[in-house]
Design a protein that fits this description.
By secondary structure, the chain is mainly α. The protein has a single domain, classed as Bromodomain-like (Up-down Bundle), CATH 1.20.1550.10. Helix content is 66%, strand content 3%. It has 7 helices and 2 strands. The protein has helices spanning 2-6, 12-34, 42-64, 68-97, 116-119, 121-124, 142-165, and strands spanning 135-137, 140-141. A two-stranded antiparallel ribbon has the order 1-2. A hairpin with a 2-residue loop joins β1 (135-137) and β2 (140-141). The two termini are 13 Å apart.
Length: 170
């Protein structure tokens, strides 16, 4: 059973799940923005960028999931993205709960060579200052849910990355 867990990244369905997760997360963010009228802050936009990165890495992994070393590289990138997502979730929760006081501006902070806010403003344009996130269900805010999800992703991706280096193959 443990061997199967470690071998999950070698299966194309593993990567399809991450594509679905990423599309679902960004789709939900856009739903909250355009249907429920909750505008995104700079931390929300950074979160969206990490999630898009997760989708792109997962798409690349579909092309290499049967090759040992490229797959390890994709799994490592997925782990890095999970850590980046965790950082943004922590910042977002900290601003929402008041244990992080920062200068949360209306600028995206993206360099000119990566100006997603200019190229795709409907998805990546900062539209309000940080402060709170909307409630999802049962009193759980988007920041709280993102924090729990990010911690789980970091833990799981760490295990899967380590597992790729263990000799657990058939």
């Amino acid at each position: 059973m443990l061997m199967r867990f470690f071998q999950l990244p070698e299966n194309k369905w593993f990567w399809l799940v991450f594509i679905g997760l990423g599309l679902g997360l960004d789709g939900m963010a856009l739903f909250y923005q355009y249907v429920l009228d909750y505008m995104p802050c700079v931390l929300c936009i950074h979160t969206r960028i990490w999630v898009v990165g997760m989708v792109l890495v997962s798409l690349l992994a579909l092309a290499v999931y049967q090759s040992k070393w490229p797959l390890r590289g994709m799994q490592f990138l997925l782990l890095v993205i999970s850590v980046g997502l965790l950082d943004r979730a922590y910042q977002l929760l900290g601003v929402e709960r008041g244990f992080i006081f920062g200068n949360c501006s209306m600028a995206s902070g993206l360099p000119s060579w990566f100006a997603l806010d200019e190229w795709f403003p409907a998805v990546f344009q900062v539209q309000e200052p940080c402060g709170y996130t909307p409630e999802l269900l049962f009193g759980i805010t988007m920041a709280e849910a993102l924090m729990v999800l990010s911690v789980a992703l970091v833990m799981l991706n760490t295990l899967w990355f380590i597992g790729l280096f263990l000799n657990v193959k058939k």
